[in-house]
């Protein structure tokens, strides 16, 4: 994506290297398969110990331990399944899609740059909404309320007047 590119809602804007995510998925898949095998083996041990207990070949303690091992294997399988599901969900974070139709107005990162949480990669502009930030005199603040309609004249639009809503106030203090 470059500045000036038009984009559609849902279009992939950025792809992030999926190597680590895919490796985590493979590790989780292997752990899940191992847990399934372990549970299958433990279930067979419980079955065999029940048959042997009927013939008084093994003690009740032996059968109890086989059941405990099966229960532990069930818990480990549930844990492995949860880890696998979490690893799979990481795929959703390997691409960034546009939330609306618009235009790329700023590119803050290049291919290969490190992306971080909360750090912009692209700035996109919607044709349907414009966010306008301005400073107003302290004496005028009391005349405005959040949610109030305001008229703004924009010189870059040949002095055209647009109507907007006050979304929020942010105080900026100047310390001298």
Structural class of the helices, strands and pairings?
alpha+beta
Helix share, percent? 25-40%
Low-confidence stretches: none
Strand content: 15-25%
Question: Quick one: how many beta strands?
Answer: 7
Q: What Rg, in angstroms, do the CA atoms define?
A: 30 Å
Number of helices: 3
Would you tell me the overall average pLDDT? 89
Estimate the global geometry from the Cα principal axes: elongated
- Largest β sheet strand count, sense and barrel closure: 3 strands, antiparallel
What's the number of structural domains?
Answer: 2
Distance between the termini: 43 Å
Q: Give, in order, the helices and strands.
A: EEHHEEEHEE
Strand order of the largest sheet: 1-4-5
What can you tell me about this protein's structure?
The chain is an alpha+beta fold. It folds into 2 domains: 16-94; 130-176. 40% of the residues lie in helices and 18% in strands. It has a 3-stranded antiparallel sheet, with no helix packed on it. Strands 2-3 form a two-stranded antiparallel sheet.
For this entry, give a set of tags.
7 strands; two-stranded antiparallel sheet; 176 residues; alpha+beta; 3 helices; 2 domains; elongated; 3-stranded antiparallel sheet
